[in-house]
Design a protein that fits this description.
Chain lengths: 304, 370
């Protein structure tokens, strides 16, 4: 029972990381580093509370994804069209997300740090499996966004590996000059990659607000955008790898919540697991990482 | 020659254009909530500059940002992005606090420099890890420093809450619970305020102003870093690596060694970021110790285009914005976060404008060659 509960809790913790990390796969595969994912998650969590409070959960999700996409649009204009430093743009967007959410929260909800209570989607039970007592915590009260996130993994794998869009996305991330000479619109593909990542990070924010907490709270993302980047790296820039990494990081988070005072390992150390593991992967201690060749490199037609 | 002046003029103009554009968009936001932007900006200026203590507070606000931006700019000069100032200064601040509260009975002339040194060492330790991983294993410094920021948050949390927590503190009056914080620092570890010195010139500051000697220290450090980078062989090599890694390698510059030295220097400066607050204001470290100076420092360095003297000016600008934002919230009921939005817009505009100018300069140079 306890085991199943811990797994259920890990899965729920993994959802926002997974959604954002899959988004990170799209943007990185197109060659754009998106540090702003944290900010896109923040605006997602805030706008979800606005949409859900006034119009219900579906609009909450849509508002959140649009807000994330809007921030991503700014990122792509800055980094793809103007080719500015991708990290700088991301840092600026994180600050913008923080400031604008506080500002708007004060205007809309009269409080800078929290929204009113909002209701999420109706949860679902998996028919049949939810009857088994052992599996009950895993199979009941499931958020539709959780199911959406899980379905997104094979779908993204298919899109990136098997479709024309995916091939083009990967080619501009590996060698933009070669892709350009073949007639692929490098700029359009990179815009697409970044905006998809913004929408998914926004959806992750909506999950936190509507499904996890029931309201927007300032700082509720707690650096999950960065953990998602770590999960994407740990998953070696693939959707399936990202899934396992997100589950592992979600597990670490669920564990750190359970490890109160007086446990053998202080919970602060359990919280470090995602970051330390990612450093270990990048160092080559755990396994070899293979980032897209042109990730982080702006593409300029005149110089290649 | 005429071209050079043109480029120089454009480069000096760029930050001002960015500030004006950001102020313009912020004005639209202020208009959207039915307030008068001109009145908001006027209030910011009046609130900030009408009284001498307010100006001193601006300088106090600017102090950590000067250190932070200097640390960022050293990284930028050699083409590395130190986004880990955040973690480096938290570790540095903690180390300084540790030396400050655990050693007792030393005279201030020895204790205070020791505490500052501990901060520097803390920052260097936390910057050593990413640069070691970069040079030895090829790990990108942006990712490793971000990860290390979060490791630092958790580590500091653990050290303050579990290991060095002050369990003997008496209950604060009016507060039911005690703070989760380190013990208070010894009196010999406290940095003196500038009140006495300024009184000598007839400037009387009230007690609630915390402007201390770290401000002049940061200004002197800025001058020192300018000299180091522009006038010494090490500075030359640092800039060469930043400008063109391949060419500098062919010229016989050991890139790895420069990266090591430069990044450790950046970390050492980062270790000073939190000390003005720690030694001049709080005198203990708790869970709510100011965060975000690392990211603000990136903004300050960008607006100053990594020029140390420009950094002093743009840090004071940010100090003014913070002070002014408190004013507009208190007097006009305009959310102070308007200013946070303004700052983020300034970053985006400055990088876009600099990029456009650089492209334009390149085109000018190409035309000249042709």
């Amino acid at each position: 029972m306890l085991v199943a509960e811990l797994f259920a809790s890990s899965l729920r913790m993994a959802v926002p990381i997974l959604l954002t990390a899959i988004g990170a796969v799209y943007t990185e595969r197109s060659g754009i580093v998106n540090i702003g994912l944290e900010g896109m998650m923040i605006v997602g969590s805030f706008w979800a509370s606005v949409g859900a409070y006034f119009y219900g959960p579906i609009m909450g999700l849509i508002y959140a994804m649009m807000a994330g996409a809007f921030l991503a649009l700014i990122h792509s204009v800055a980094t793809v069209t103007f080719r500015v430093n991708q990290v700088v743009s991301g840092v600026a967007l994180n600050i913008l997300a923080y400031g604008s959410s506080r500002f708007l929260s004060l205007i809309i909800f009269n409080k800078a740090t929290t929204s009113h209570h909002v209701s999420g989607f109706k949860t679902v039970d998996i028919p049949g499996l939810s009857e088994i007592a052992f599996l009950q915590p895993l199979m009941t009260d499931i958020s539709p966004i959780l199911i959406m996130a899980l379905i997104l993994v094979p779908v993204s794998k298919y899109i990136i590996d098997k479709t024309v869009f995916g091939l083009r996305l990967r080619s501009v991330g590996e060698n933009p000059l070669a892709a350009d000479t073949l007639g692929i619109n490098v700029f359009a593909m990179r815009y697409a990659g970044v905006i998809i990542s913004g929408m998914l990070a926004g959806a992750a924010g909506a999950y936190l607000t509507m499904e996890h907490t029931g309201m927007y709270v300032e700082g509720m993302t707690q650096g999950k955008g960065y953990i998602a980047m770590a999960a994407m790296i740990f998953g070696n820039w693939t959707p399936t790898g990202t899934l396992w990494a997100s589950l592992l990081f979600g597990f670490a988070e669920a564990l750190s919540l359970r490890a109160g005072e007086g446990s053998i390992i202080p919970y602060q150390f359990i919280k470090m697991i995602p970051y330390v593991l990612t450093l270990a992967v990048l160092t080559g201690i755990v396994k070899k990482s293979t980032p897209p060749a042109a990730s982080g490199v702006p593409y300029d037609r005149s110089t290649g | 020659m005429k071209k050079d002046y043109k480029i120089l003029a454009l480069k000096i103009l760029a930050p001002f254009v960015a500030i004006i554009l950001a102020a313009f968009i912020s004005s639209l936001i202020i208009l959207a909530i039915d307030k008068d932007p001109l009145q908001v900006f006027y209030t910011m200026f009046k609130f900030s500059f009408k009284r001498i203590d307010s100006i001193a507070m601006i300088l106090f606000n600017a102090t950590p940002l000067i250190f932070s931006a200097l640390a960022v700019s050293i990284g930028f000069k050699m083409g590395l992005f130190n986004i880990g100032i955040e973690g480096q200064y938290l570790i540095g601040t903690f180390m300084a606090a540790l030396v400050g509260f655990s050693i007792k009975g030393l005279p201030a002339v020895i204790h205070l420099p020791l505490v500052i040194l501990a901060g520097i060492v803390g920052g260097m330790i936390w910057s050593f890890i990413p640069i070691f991983l970069k040079v030895k294993r090829g790990v990108h410094e942006v990712i490793s420093t971000i990860m290390l920021n979060y490791v630092a948050y958790s580590l500091i949390h653990f050290l303050i809450a579990d290991v060095f927590r002050d369990r003997q503190q008496s209950l604060v009056e009016g507060l039911g619970s005690v703070l989760v914080r380190t013990p208070k620092l010894a009196a010999s570890a406290v940095i003196p305020k500038m009140h006495g010195f300024l009184a000598f010139f007839g400037v009387q500051l009230p007690k609630h102003v915390y402007l201390n000697w770290f401000f002049p220290i940061s200004v002197v450090l800025a001058a020192g870093i300018y000299y180091l980078i522009m006038r010494t062989p090490f500075g030359y090599e640092l800039r060469a690596v930043g400008h063109n890694p391949e060419a500098s390698c062919i010229a016989g510059i050991n890139q790895g060694r420069i990266y090591f030295k430069g990044f450790l220097l950046s970390g050492a400066v980062a270790g000073l970021v939190g000390l003005s607050d720690l030694l001049g204001y709080f005198r203990y470290m708790d869970m709510d110790f100011p965060r975000g100076y690392g990211f603000d420092g990136i903004a300050v360095a960008l607006i100053a285009q990594n020029n140390p003297f420009g950094i002093i000016a743009s840090a004071i600008l940010f100090g003014f914005l913070k002070r002014g934002s408190e004013g507009i919230q208190a007097l006009l009921k305009v959310p102070m976060d308007t200013i946070v939005i303004l700052q983020s817009l300034m970053i985006i505009f400055i990088v876009v404008i600099t990029k456009i100018i650089n492209d334009y300069v390149k085109r000018l140079e190409k035309r000249e060659v042709a």
